[in-house]
Amino acid sequence: MISLPPATTQFKGDPRLSRPVQVAEAIKDWVVEQGLHAGDRLPSEPELIERFSMAKGTIREAMRILEAQGLIKTRTGPGGGSFVHEVSKERARALLGNYFYFKNLTIADIYQLRRALEPELAASLAGNLSDEVLGQLEDRIATYSSPAKTVDEEREQHVGSLKFHALLAAQSENELMGFLIDFMVNILSDLTVYRRLYNPPNIELWGKGRDFQVRLVEALRSGDADGARQIMSDHMATAQSLMEVQEAQMLRRFISE
Description:
Structural class: mainly alpha
Strand order of the largest sheet: 1-2
Oligomer: single chain
Order of helices and strands: HHHEEHHHHHHH
Number of domains: 2
Distance between the termini: 62 Å
Number of helices: 10
Shape: elongated
């Protein structure tokens, strides 16, 4: 366990924040400064009380805040205590998704970012994917090899097509780019389902989207970065246009109901 350095002056946080939040932020700063990693033990409660000159209740609330954020993990019993915890991609995505839940995002909002990022991702991956990953992309495309026959199948095909892009995002060497694309893909998948953007079925959206993905895999396999970028750019532009049609139909259906 690494101990906190003794306080040389009285702890002063941002007065606009509650005391537990101030302490939680200070602990996060200290973890970064010390270069701690997931699994490293944090100072004991008495040490934190002494370091911040705060009441036990304030320190415990600060630790609960950090645990709720997924940044620490507390274990009881022998060998227990508080430990640095790495936030998983799934938890980060869920927390960020909660922020946007009431923001009424539109198809245009999402595709403005997709059109900026995904062509560059495709270009960066050209010639750099293993045969295994290329095979996984082709297997994904094979799950929607023919037009949907039912509305339920249409929904599954929409979601499956977006998983193709999530798989690409997972290959990015740029962690931030990969996370942002994965997040947008998941937001779009959720919007598609709960706004029923898959209904009525759109065979043009299926056909053009699948064709773009097939051509993209060919460009990725051959190492054609410029080609991959252009195919993805065209794919995003076409998908936005057709998805906006679905969105408009959904709005008309909502108003009529």
